[in-house]
Sequence to fold (232 residues):
Amino acid sequence: MQFTTAALLTLLGAASAQKVHVVSVGSTNGTLAFSPDNVKADVGDMLQFQFRGGNHSVAQSNFDNPCSPIAAHTNTTGIFSGYQPVAASQAMGMIPTYSVMVSAKTPLWFYCSQAKHCQAGMVMVVNENTTANSSRSLTAFKTLAKAQAANVAPTRASGGTSGTNSTTGSTGGSTGSGSGSSGTGTTSGSGSTTSGTASSATSSAVATGAATMVGVSSSVGLVGLVAAMFML
Ligand SMILES: [Cu+2]
Fold:
């Protein structure tokens, strides 16, 4: 929690108008959905994906090719959280989170690359723009996703020299502490923290990404804190 707060405050220092948009991924009921699945975000805002249940991922596609990495169709590297199994984390009182910064106002399309979750509707959009193109709606994206034969996970290094994730040990407990925005945390307990970056050079849509873990109980406080700080 302290690490997360420290990172958040660092980000706040960098951009005072920045918002954090929390998106729940899955649920304890096995829901195959992102919630909310239609987000409006400004450039510089953060998306924080909170993995609530099951074993899901967040991957980036384009509109025309749902359930397929955007790097397979464009020069954009795209983001990929990797798979985030929640059960093991919950046993430690933690939930995995994955955060990315929005670096463009153009629509961003995301899907879960697990099994046929994408086909089942586990997709979302950031900055849907049906004013510019009425056919490119979230509803249309879901219809297109449903028709895809395959659900393809990105490779970690797809399309660029970065966009990689590294796993480092040492997290756990709900009283983790650490420093910096680089994703390094030192805590008591055991577990894992995944941190990564999406290349800003090759990804025009999303500049940075970092995954970390927050305590279940403290994350509620964080969400409340975010709401209190950003929604006034
Ligand atoms: Cu999923």
